[in-house]
Amino acid sequence: MKPNKKALLIQREVMEKRLQSLSTLKSEKRPPSGWLRAIRGALGMTAGQLGHRMDLDASGVLRLEEREAKGSASFEMVKRAAEAMNCKLVYAIVPNDEYSSLEDIIDERALKSARILHQSVEHSMRLEKQGVEKDVTEKHIEKLAFELKQKMDPLLWETSTKKKSKKVTEK
């Protein structure tokens, strides 16, 4: 099924606007003890008191706080704890620090994909002694990147400079 390119563009524009208000949170780091323990402490609430509000015992709350600090707590449990403290879990996915927008991610990806695609062509041309000068090559790559981005071509994400993936195991 082909993606509706106009709908994708609109979706990206909508998301860019929503992400603008979150840009100040990008540099926010989780407190070393985790958000749950930090907020609970700031509220002056004991683990037992929070546990009572969540139908857990104090040791269950402490285990949850440890998992949250490590990044392994379930979303649902963190949400329950936040609500038990009269707070709200705010969840978002934002571009990494090196990107200011989704547009930056796509621009970089288009250039990488264009370079990968161009390498195979350039190699064949060199074998046939039809090499092109560097500045001409760069212009070709930039043009190809622009076309990949404009068309939202699937090659944008299919060409790969694969990173080794870490296997995630559940305990």
Low-confidence regions? 163-171
- The structural class is mainly alpha
Number of helices: 8
Hey, roughly how much beta strand do the residues contain?
under 5%
Mean pLDDT: 84
Give the termini separation. 37 Å
Number of domains: 2
Q: Spell the H/E element sequence.
A: HHHHHHHH
Indicate the percent of residues in helices.
Answer: 55-70%
The count of β-strands is 0
CATH architecture identity of the largest domain: Orthogonal Bundle
CATH fold type of the largest domain: 434 Repressor (Amino-terminal Domain)
* Rg calc: 24 Å
Q: What's the CATH C level of the largest domain?
A: Mainly Alpha
What is the molecular shape?
elongated
What can be said about the biggest beta sheet?
none
Write the layout of secondary structure elements.
Elements: H1 5-20, H2 35-43, H3 47-54, H4 58-70, H5 75-84, H6 102-127, H7 134-151, H8 155-158
Helix pairs in contact: 3-4, 6-7
Please describe what this structure looks like:
- The protein is mostly helical and 171 residues long.
- The protein has 2 domains: 22-94, 434 Repressor (Amino-terminal Domain); 102-158, no CATH class.
- It has 8 helices and no strands.
- It has helices spanning 5-20, 35-43, 47-54, 58-70, 75-84, 102-127, 134-151, 155-158.
- The longest helix is centred in the C-terminal third of the chain and has 26 residues, at 102-127.
Summarize, please.
The relative contact order is 0.10. This protein has eight helices and no strands. By secondary structure, the protein is mostly helical.
